[in-house]
Amino acid sequence: MAASSTSSIQKSFKYDVYLSFRGEDTRKNFVDHLYHALQQQGIHVFKDDVKLARGIAIGDQLVESIEDSKIFIIIFTKNYASSSWCLNELVKIMECNKMNEHTVYPVYYGVEPTEVRKQSGAVGDAFNKLKNKEDAGKWREALKEAADLAGWELNNTFDGHEAKFIKKIVEEISIELRAGSDSTNLTGVENLVGMEARIQDLEFHLELGVDDVRMIGIWGMGGAGKTTLARALFDRISIQFEGKSFVEDVGQVSKPSLSGLKLLQMHVLSDVLDDKGITIADIKEGKYMMRNLLHGKKLLIVLDGVDDIEQLEALAGTPEWFGAGSRIIITTRDKQVLLAHRVSYIHGVSLLSDAEALYLFSKYAFGRETPIQGYTDISLEVLRYADGLPIAIKVLGSFLNGKGEVEWMDALERLKQIPLKETLEKLEISYISLEEDYKEIFLDVACFMNGWDKDYAIGILESCGFHARNGLRVLEQTSLITMSNQSLSMHDQIQEMGKNIVRRSHPVEPNKHSRLWIEEEIGEILANDLGTEATYSIIVDSPVKLSSVIVTHSFRSMKNLRILHMASELDDDYDYDYEVKIDQAHQNFPNALRVLSWVGYPHYYLPETFQATNLVRLNLSYSRIVQLWEGEERKVLYNLRFLDLSFSRLTSIDLELTPNLERLDLEGCDDLVQLYTPIGCLQKLRYLNLNGCSRINTILFIKRLVSIEVLCLTRLFLEKFPDIIPENYNNRLIEFQFRYNDIEELPSSIENLQKLVYLDLHSCRKLRSLPKSICGLRHLRSLKLYGCIIEELPEDIGRLESLEKLNLSFTRIKHLPDSICMLKHLKNLNLSSCWNLEKLPEDLGQLECLQDLILSECTQVRDIPDSICMLKHLKSLNLSNCILLAKLPEGLGCLDLEVLNVKGTGIKHLPRSIYLLKDLKIYGPTLGLRSRGSASTSQTLEPSSISKQKLDDR
């Protein structure tokens, strides 16, 4: 809800909450009630009239108390700004807010945020009463910073009812505090319930000791525990395989975009090959790459949530795609999908037994393995309505947790009125208890956002005015959603329940639904101009095939539409499968829109009738748009923060019309010629992507981007390094992508980018050297010089004390300076295809954090220094095709090496100590070793496991 920062090291605070307020305004009413409500929830609160001890300097103790508080609640009232005491307190609070672990929540009691932000109205009158004007500047800045945070307004919440207002504050503070605690974490509980026998049964049918390729299916109803079972099995047996990949929600991920299956193919390839840089052009190429790159590897792949045979054909076409011993596990609700793919075995998931159900329910309802005394009978009665379905048991347990006997009886009466077959309504009990804004968030997730990236979903929800982070935490804690691997997910039955809530009032009149997501219904509504003010959101994943003129004309009646998220169907050239007739008079977008995302937008401009004053996000990627507005029309989009026009036909853009923009993506705008960036605009821009915009007239404006954090200037073919140092030198740049440009040198001013973390100069093929000043980038963690023609590194390269990844592949490096051994945090050193490199530094062993060393194709390297045996964290050593390399250091066996690639080298004998490495996989000649399952000791390119070889086997 409010700005906060986190750290991997959790700080311990003396107080949970610090209350900042003007005593004469609220001490005996609102603050007193809020204080006691927080205390009743077990929240430790600091309030100065209670905690200050006599005889101690007030200022000193307040500073200490502020620093020792996790959360600050600032109650802004009409007279708050008349107190220098309060304002100095506020300054200290905002200083703490910039540090780790603190969070600030402003509360507006009888004033508006804009009055605080601008010191106007009653707040301004109070501020002007101050006699001490020397500190006015820092006070004004602190007030503005606090008012810029999202907070609570009494006048706009529960119609000003203070009791409800306080209840909501306490609830959200409790959620914030619990989020940092492990006390309510039930992750893995379901793995303890009836899972062992099910895993053993599956292991029996997997026959892991047999070297054929097997595909098995796990089939059952939604919520029966298919994913849980697959994950538990995956975690147990994955160590037995050379590569592994767990692909979640295949059905969901493969459908939201035109490239969903392609992304899943890249996911699998990246996982099993341990290469995050893999890219594929289309599904056909993905099948070819999987078939040719995976057939020699023993792999474990789980495809979770498959719902169409096409998905299996793209991700696990035939057993011949995979190496001997591979196992492919598929979970699905549709048995026909498994039969059509001819899997080896189908495992039907059984629901929980009565004993298992009671155990799981007790964990969620009571936090123990059995019900508390007196609740056993009623627990068993409640469980009758869960019918052994794990997800229903978890939801009911979470809902009843902490509730008294009366509430239990009320819940049981509700359940008795619900038919057993109606699982959807069983799950609705938890929904009913939600606050209204959390219900809205839940319905958005159920109808649209299941499977979405978490941060993207939060951005959309926040654009619509919701406190999304707290809302999603509430939904997660009530088992209505899960958030894992940076994505939102929701059980099928719960999702159906949410959709049913939206549709049931008007089951045969979708034009009266608050949310629309079914393409056929949307098509009929738009084609027949049936839109109504009832519709708030339209999000459709499949491309709409309607006439663009009909579509834009039909939005006119949807005056309350806040989200429009759709796509037009494109062919391979990103053109459209229908003729577009531009008719500005008949284009309509509701002025209430906050999010407009239309991939493939078919018109050249936004409609002239569209005011766009509420627009926060605009995505018209892969569209025909050439300018935002036609001709000389100028409409300023004051609220627009995110603009994506990538791969469109944009020719020019006036960025004075978007003064508050934070993210701008113009990648692939080949026709873009003019960027109009007058002085004073783009002051808030944090992300700018101009990749491929090689025709733009100038990029001189970049030095005026005082807030820029990520800058992408790939394929501009620049011959001179751009001036990217802001004019005020308050540089915030963290990531700079500058691939495929024609510069020959970097300026010495590069050292001014003191916050730079990622610098990518990949394929700057004319770059001959690096300035010494680059060694001053103390925060640089990744430096990519792939394909540059540099011949040497600066002698002081060791000063890059934070560097973790250094890619020098395909450079002309002849030697590495000795100081490179001072890079104490370096984890990945890539020297592949450095054909001029003759030797490595003798003190290589000083790179104490090095995990991956890649020397493939270093054809001049003859020796590996003995000091490599000091690299205790080295996991992978790739020496493939180092043709002059004839031996390895004798002490290599003292490492925890997991992968050794000696393919194409001159090595004939491995050091004797290497046989002590239990988990080592060797790629290349077996050198006389007999691999398990192989009767031959001849040369092979397959990895050889020597984990159980005796020394005499050599």
From TrEMBL:
One of the GO biological process terms: signal transduction
Region described as Disordered: 930-954
Domain of life: Eukaryota
Ranges of Polar residues composition bias in the record: 933-948
rRNA-binding keyword on record: no
SMART domains reported for this sequence: LRR_TYP, TIR
Transmembrane segments: none
All residue ranges annotated as the TIR domain in the record: 13-177
Molecular function per GO: ADP binding
The keyword Thylakoid appears for this protein: no
Lineage summary: Eukaryota, Viridiplantae, Streptophyta, Embryophyta, Tracheophyta
InterPro entries in the record: Apaf_helical, Disease_R_plants, Leu-rich_rpt, Leu-rich_rpt_typical-subtyp, LRR_dom_sf, LRR_R13L4/SHOC2-like, NB-ARC, P-loop_NTPase
Name of the protein this chain belongs to: Disease resistance protein (TIR-NBS-LRR class)
Organism: Artemisia annua
Keywords for this protein: Leucine-rich repeat, NAD, Plant defense, Repeat
